[in-house]
Amino acid sequence: MSGSRWLHDLLLLLILAALVGILIWKRREVQQVLISAYHAVRRWILARLGRTQKALPETDGAYCDYVEDLLHQEQTWKAGEPSISGRQWKQRYRQYRRMKPDTARYRLGYALFLAKIPDEVHQICCSPAEILQQMQEQNRASAEMALVTERYMQIRYGMVTPEVPDFDTMDLLLKQMAHNG
Question: What is the pTM of this model?
Fold first, then answer.
């Protein structure tokens, strides 16, 4: 009887050690899941209490794409601070690489591209065309940047859906940016 109890305790200890090892190994992923769950529960509670955020007033129907909304849905951006840290960029880049090739992946890729270019070149109020023009004026634009920006504008207005060559160009641009800093 005590031999069986001893074996049971040993197996339970091994399972707990394996669980702790996995939690330590995947701590960042676990942290992201817990933070996402916290924000989801918080939004659900606030919605039930009637304290939801008010929508922005309708203007002339123009479409506006906020990079910060794509990268930090729960965080706010302050002027003078980098939009995301290097570690966050790498984390989002890994997320981008795991996504299936669709519009959301292309938009995230473009947001990662914008996060890597200097803050003095782009501002939240600039359109993609204006950002590309500023990059070209400063001789910082590459052919890939022009292609990615042109396709992004077509994709975000729903004129086209991204195709494999579009992702190849985006992947090449993001790999260059990841290696350059």
Answer: 0.53
